[in-house]
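Title: Prediction job returns without error message
Component: structure pipeline
Severity: low
Priority: P3
Assignee: unassigned

Description:
Job completed but the reporter wants confirmation the result is attached to the right record. Sequence as submitted:
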Amino acid sequence: MRSILSLISAALVAGCAATTDAPTATPARSETLSTSSSPTLSGYRNAAGLPALRSSPRLARAAQVQADYMARTGRFSHAGAGGSRVASRVSAQNYCYTAAAENIAYGQPSEAHALTGWMNSPSHRRHILNPMFTEVGLGNRNGFWVMVLGRPC
């Protein structure tokens, strides 16, 4: 059990990606996740003197695509179908952006637990508290959590 927890902790620390180059949940559920996490996410950002992130259905769809892929393949990775990365998944949702980043997590029993894990990881926390990001979308499938942050054009 201890080795499983160590593996999950290591995956949390390793599970982040960012780009500034422009190019059993459903997509509707992922949009609900964005809304339901807003108070907690807003609380963290507010404590850092930052504005709340707006929920983006397009970023939620990009996050859900990756959560679905990881659940389907069992691969915990930022690389998606065909080697896609967060930039290509965001662009595929017709989201015009100047910056985008992705946090992934696995095995947390709830959205709140995933967010706590990300906030306890310096690299994930940097994404969440980056003032450049103004929008967020979340996806979840079978314990695979994905957060995509963006700044629209």
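Comment from assignee: result matches the submitted record. The longest strand covers residues 97-106.
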